[in-house]
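new request in #modeling-help
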Amino acid sequence: MTHSSLPDGRVGRHLDRYRLDERFPHILCPGCGIGTAMGTMVRALEELDIGQDQVSVISGIGCSSRVPGYLDCDTFHTLHGRAIPAATGVKLARPDMNVVVFGGDGDIMAIGGNHFIHAARRNLDITVFVVNNRTYAMTGGQYSPTTPTHEKAATAPWGNCERSFDICFMARASGAMFVARSTTFHVTHLQRMMKLALTKTGFSVLEIVSQCPTLYGRHQRIGDAVKMLEWFKANSVDVSKVEDPWSETERFVIGVLHDREEVPPYTRLYGSVRDASQGKGKV
Amino acid sequence: MALELRSGNEACAIGALRAGVRFFAGYPITPSTEIAEYLARELPKLDGTFVQMEDEIGSICCMNGATAAGLKAMTATSGPGFSLMQEGLGYSIISELPCLIVDVMRGGPATGSPTRSSQADIMQARHGTHGDHPVVALCPWDVRECFDLTVEAINVSERLRIPVILLMDEIVGHMRETVDLPGEVDVWQPNNPRKPPEEYFHYDDDNNYDARIASFGEGYRIHMTGLVHRKDGFPTNDPEIIRWNLDRLRHKLEDNESWLWDLTFEDVGAETVIVCYGSSARSAMEAKRQYESRTGRTVGILRLRMLWPFPHRRLISLLKSARRVIVPEMNQGQLNRSIERTVSRDVEVVPVLRYDGEMLTPEEIVDAL
């Protein structure tokens, strides 16, 4: 395993630090947005000066979930849908570590949906980056819980008759402390949102709308990666420019959609259980 | 000497704490719940962690996470929950995360008979998760053994970096006995020092069983995956490395089975020998006593404390003079088949089976003798 040292000139060379060069080339398709999301996450970690040994990046299964395999820190590529329970174990065992879950819409919202809502309810102090490319890309473009109604997919050749989840709405309704959305077109915005999510205490969710030109783009006949990014640009609106971000259905509302403090993080709540059991207070 | 009245479930929880378990993730299920309840009360006192997850899938994955971060961790469940845990169990095996999974068996399939007893998860423990894999499963017959085998399970799991299954059943789980549980137990410790990060490989063949393994947060930058992986933990499709990885797992038991095998026996030179395990072994012991006092003839008894890996070679040598082998089980004959495969063809294997939720009685075994 390589352990690259911290470069002197940090800015601009940040990828030297978190990236495992020997693992490249990666498995992602040309034009995929996941590399953008990963590179932006590394820049965010670097700017926040979170050391490689203070962070654990945890994933399930899928294209987005392969990201931890290219990072030089403690990385945990778990079962399909199970990144959040694994992160629960890591965070409770090592509350001092920054625990980041990185995964896709199928992994976190479908097979892992139950864990997502319960981790939010507990207010587990982790950061969840959900890369939403609206499809199961690893298995060939089947419809996911975020594929819009009527759209086509490998398992919806006649069109998708199901409704889709709004990841951010789900996060907020389940009790997340911080909820934001960005896209792989808005990289500086994305980096800012990532930094906010990473520094927020409590369950923090960032939805990253991302392009999958190889499968989703082809099924919807949108075109290549550039066309998809242009489509994100044309169809996004900043949260400051809408009256109610939760009722907007036609465009992606980007920015911080929800930010609150009222519940302490789970590690602190469980600390009160320990104190009570040791006669030092009440839960 | 401190005598206490304890149930098997409580004795298991106490054994786990004495062996150093500081993390429990689980989901309520009859008849295992008393283990979770005991640990929910006691773990926080020891600065440990108890977490009740949203389901058994979350429980085993959460336990795997805590283990990856360096804690001794466990979960406890019963048949339906154990079914849900099977994929996570496979993850513990391939990523070599030591842990304890307690299955307090009840009737199945599906919801089955939640409040009744059974020994019908023997094959689920062996083959429940997919793919070729090693399995270690222990099976206690009384309250004291629930304590002892919990400690042994944790030590074996740490030493071989493998999940260990404790197959209790409703009878031993809920039965209360007066026991004297030791305040201190032998806890396995690796003999060799850990290599520095530059020389460290998480799945090094030179580093298999006797060196301290690195955990998350210690600066080793480990990669763990459920994919078949190289010795540094990263995935591969190289056929040679796939074979190496699966052989590495297989050898954990093949290289260690002689010290792993755990069984007790008496009078196995007799013509008839009862091979038994778990709570039905209690009835078998009573059947031996009744039969011998009534007829004056000796009956052998061989009790397996470890069901997997199955002690084939040990059984061949112990049963070499037996002509009849009686196998009582509270299922439709799960371990019978392993015993049929082990003994020579001219030995008669007689199953004594009960699967109506009731305890197998000594009289039923005496009838077969």
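bot summary: The first strand of chain A starts at residue 55 and ends at 59.
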